[in-house]
Design goal:
- The protein is of the alpha/beta class and 421 residues long.
- The chain has 2 domains: 132 residues, Aspartate Aminotransferase, domain 1 (Alpha-Beta Complex), CATH 3.90.1150; 270 residues, Aspartate Aminotransferase, domain 2.
- It contains 13 helices and 14 strands.
- A 7-stranded mixed sheet has the order 2-8-7-6-5-3-4, with helices on both faces.
- Helix 1 packs antiparallel against helix 9 and helix 6 runs parallel beside helix 7.
- Bound molecules: pyridoxal-5'-phosphate.
- Pyridoxal-5'-phosphate binds next to helix 4.
Length: 421
């Protein structure tokens, strides 16, 4: 049975070139970058070279890049780092703003801070298409708001958020914040200092963070152009390895490191660097950037073909997210198949060797519907019928044709068995 992989938003295979670039750092150049002898320094220079490369691709400085174990850690570090810093330096508890369609690594982190530390959290609503309105952001900012986190491209429905416009709102608010911080002319670059204990709310600039995990492959991620202070990436969404990621942190942004025990990453993220994976992620990023325009068009064409065929051949289907061609990532197409559960479609496809994904998550034996679809206004019943196809550079029209030989029949069979009429 030939395997058809249509779940590239979940992960991608490591490309041959990336694998080759990583190989020497497992068994030959295996030194610890903190060791002073040659083997260690060789590893250190590989990490620093990777840092320069990725910084360049993001329009950042090398010292603004922190390597992590993936975007989950990067997102945790961004939200907790900023919120805990300001919880020590403000009279009020910090206020965090996120969108209601964030990945769980942002959503659950914000909820954890709210539940366990009493921080305030506001979730921005989204339109039916899954897009945040910048005017909504403006109306929920408070004097104790310390961080706004809105993802660049949504992983379930592919909606692209107006990051630049949101950044403009934050810039305007920051410009008006009443008292500039006293820092004696020194840079508070990535500081661990508590000298501002008890500052008035309003004196701290709002930090703007974006999770650009699904966007990096297809959209411009120049941090200055986007106007962000923090940006998260993970290696395995663009043909790099799993378990490695990065957090861009603009110089001067105040936050507390969340991991102690070593001086790595300038004391901001303790732990021996994962040298082969860091090298692999940098290689994957640079290959992605070189192929950007070709793969974007090729994948968008394939997605359009899939969307057209599903719309024409299966009744009672809704394409979720923005209209095709508008504010939508090229690789993601999600659908609601009315009257059936997405999971049952997935199981049937899996039996045929076809991999896709559903927005529902199986928690303690029951299906929780996708928070993204419910935030977009779909009721629980509809949200349960969602399936996400996410395409990659190895997919072909023939694979879509093969899948479409089965999907209409699967849907018809399941609807025949469904108690919902
Ligand atoms: C938008 C988004 N953010 C964060 C993550 C977390 O990435 P990782 O599991 O590699 O830490 C993912 C992965 O699915 C994602 O799609």
């Amino acid at each position: 049975m030939k395997h058809i992989y249509l779940d590239h938003a979940a992960t991608t295979p490591v490309s041959k070139d990336v694998f080759d670039a990583m190989q020497p750092y497992f068994r030959e150049k295996y030194g610890n970058p903190s060791s002073i002898y040659k083997l260690g320094q060789e590893a250190k220079s590989a990490v620093e070279h990777a840092r320069e490369e990725v910084a360049d691709m993001l329009g950042a400085k090398p010292r603004e890049i922190i390597f992590t174990s993936g975007a989950t850690e990067s997102n945790n570090l961004a939200l907790k780092g900023v919120a805990f810093y300001w919880s020590q330096n403000l009279k009020k508890k910090p206020h965090i703003i996120i969108s209601s369609i964030e990945h769980h690594s942002v959503l659950d982190t914000a909820e954890y801070l709210e539940k366990n530390f009493g921080f305030e959290v506001t979730k921005l609503p989204v339109s039916k298409e899954g897009i945040v309105d910048p005017t909504d952001l403006e109306s929920v900012i408070k004097d104790n708001t310390v961080i706004v986190s809105v993802m660049y491209g949504n992983n379930e429905v592919g909606s692209i958020q107006p990051i630049k416009e949101l950044g403009e709102v934050i810039k305007r608010v920051n410009a008006k914040r009443v008292r500039p911080l006293q820092n004696n002319g020194k840079s508070h670059d990535f500081e661990h200092e508590n000298s501002l204990q008890g500052s008035d709310p309003c004196s701290q600039p709002i930090v703007f963070h974006t999770d650009a995990v699904q966007a990096f492959q297809y959209l411009d991620c120049d941090v200055k152009g986007l106007g962000v202070d923090m940006l998260s990436l993970t290696g395995h969404k663009f043909y790099g390895p799993k378990g490695v990621g990065l957090l861009y942190v603009k110089s001067g942004t105040k936050f507390l490191s969340q991991q102690q025990g070593g001086a790595q990453e300038r004391g901001l993220r303790a732990g021996t660097e994962n040298v082969p994976y860091i090298v692999g992620m940098a290689k994957a990023m640079s290959d992605t950037r070189k192929q950007l325009t070709i793969s974007k068009q090729q994948i968008a064409d394939l997605r359009d073909y899939l969307v057209k065929r599903i719309a024409a051949e299966i009744p009672d289907v809704v394409l979720t997210g923005p209209e095709i061609g508008k504010k939508r990532l090229p690789h993601i197409a999600s659908f609601i198949f009315k009257k059936i559960e997405g999971e049952s479609i997935l199981i049937n496809l899996d039996l045929l060797g076809i991999a896709a994904s559903s927005g529902s998550a199986c928690t303690s034996g029951s299906l929780a519907s996708s928070h993204v679809l419910t935030a977009m206004g779909y009721d629980d019943l509809l949200a349960h019928g969602s399936i996400r196809f996410s395409l990659g550079k190895m997919n072909s029209k023939e694979e879509i044709d093969e899948m479409m030989k089965h999907l209409p029949q699967i849907v018809e069979k399941l609807r025949g068995m469904s108690p919902i009429k």
